[in-house]
């Protein structure tokens, strides 16, 4: 009986570990939940308030395809997409609009 309980506990801990690793991998990849085909509509809204639509769309789409996430709204809120927020240019400036 005790052996069965230990085996069940080990199985549960292994399952919990695998779920944690899966979440970490997803976060490292970008953590986004978007599908690549959703990037165009999300970036269109994200870039709707800027006067520099072409470069905004170019970089937003590039960031969305890598991170599978676009922050809500037309400005700010980057903390909701860590990959999008942390991707920087060589000069250390934000790459994603």
Automatic annotation (TrEMBL):
Q: Is Signal one of the keywords UniProt gives this record?
A: yes
Q: Which GO terms describe its biological process?
A: gibberellic acid mediated signaling pathway
Q: Does the keyword Signal apply?
A: yes
* InterPro entries assigned: GASA
What are the UniProt keywords, alphabetically?
Gibberellin signaling pathway, Signal
- Which residue positions does the secretion signal occupy? 1-27
User: Which PANTHER family is this protein grouped with?
Assistant: EXTENSIN, PROLINE-RICH PROTEIN (PTHR23201), GIBBERELLIN-REGULATED PROTEIN 5 (PTHR23201:SF60)
Q: Give the UniProt family note.
A: Belongs to the GASA family.
| Name of the protein described by the UniProt record | Gibberellin regulated protein
